[in-house]
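Regression test attached.
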Amino acid sequence: MIHIKRLQEDGADVVALVGEIDASSSIDLDLAIAKSVGDGFTKILIDCSSLEYISSAGLGVFMSYIEEFREKSIQMVLFGMNEKVANTFQILGLNELLKIAVDKVGAKQMLA
Amino acid sequence: MIYKQKVGCKLENLKPLRDFIRESLAHHGVHELHISEIVLALDEMCSNLMIHAHHCNPLDLFELRITVEPGKPVVFEIIDDGTVFDITKFEGPEIDSLVHDKRKGGLGIRLVKSIMDKIEYTQRDGSNVCRLEKQVRKATA
């Protein structure tokens, strides 16, 4: 079960993920990112500080946007992951492909 | 010690299943990071089974059995009557090609293979058994 909250800060769309993302809820993450893109945001921050779990279904959603974001010059930075969630990204080397910051301040600095 | 849990093929059942795995392993003092990796791999295996072999029919049941014995790798068995979805026959696609193709699936197979030490499929009493092994560390070790 995942709750997704969106708020806008300094021209960036901050998407906060609260709870767990698995095969039953990854669609909600997908829809939230699609909505942000649809609303015209080019800076998207994903707040993972209340994300307790992410399965490969959730990782797949982030992966599926990498190429599209490159083409459209959309920047996405994830921040605030706990150790276990961070480890999940590392197992597959996704920490190399996605921009990940420790906290929101760091995430904003990564937005050029 | 053997822990057993029967589950209906409904994606909403993945969360209680993850809790069952965490609780079973926590009884044996397994290191937290190990537990979270194992949960990830089994979540992947079980969601694959629900989706691909049972088309998420909540009336179809399978069983997850966890066997913990001192000094031995932990054994996880997924026992099921449906169609076999044998991930050992699939090569996980390269990450680069997934990015290029904008695909959402395909990561799980790589994940399971990198987390588990051994994956094998057998038949037992007319059921399909997917057996996974993982050598774990104790939190205090």
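Expected vs. actual: identical. The mean pLDDT of chain B is 88.
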